[in-house]
Design brief:
GMP Synthetase, Chain A, domain 3; alpha+beta; about 20% strand; 2 domains; 3-stranded mixed sheet; globular; 5 helices
């Protein structure tokens, strides 16, 4: 039952932080920042916030620096929107899952092209063996 409560709190924090980022972070950085996940500690005092940044690696680092700089302001905004016994201390992490997924998909697409060309060569060889 405690796990269900943590899941609900994580989802609530993710949604509210997304709204805070729309107002506070996106206009300053001119990049798209998305809260992908929030993992709060069981004592509700600390939370890891995973953000995805649409842009290059430099943009991600710049956004993390801005978030760390404005952490107190973000926590204050969050405390007014979400009523908890303790407002969690936010720790921001860059979520590179989307970039890694794009890289894997491009590798798979290249393999698929190679396999198709290799498969046609193998099937031609099999036809040649049956004719002999």
């Amino acid at each position: 039952m405690a796990g269900d409560r943590l899941k609900r709190v994580n989802e609530l924090l993710r949604r509210e932080l997304g709204q805070v980022f729309e107002v506070l972070v996106s206009p300053e950085t001119k990049v798209l920042v998305t809260v992908t996940d929030v993992r709060i500690a069981p004592d509700l005092r600390d939370a890891s916030v995973f953000v995805s940044v649409y842009g290059d690696e430099h943009a991600g680092k710049a956004v993390l620096a801005l978030l760390t700089k404005k952490r107190a302001h973000i926590q204050h905004d969050l405390s007014r929107k979400v009523i908890l016994k303790y407002t969690p201390r936010l720790h921001f992490r860059l979520d590179e899952t989307a970039a890694k997924a794009d890289r894997v998909m491009s590798i798979l697409e290249n393999l698929d092209i190679d396999e198709k060309s290799g498969a046609s060569t193998e099937s031609e060889a099999a036809v040649d063996d049956t004719d002999a």
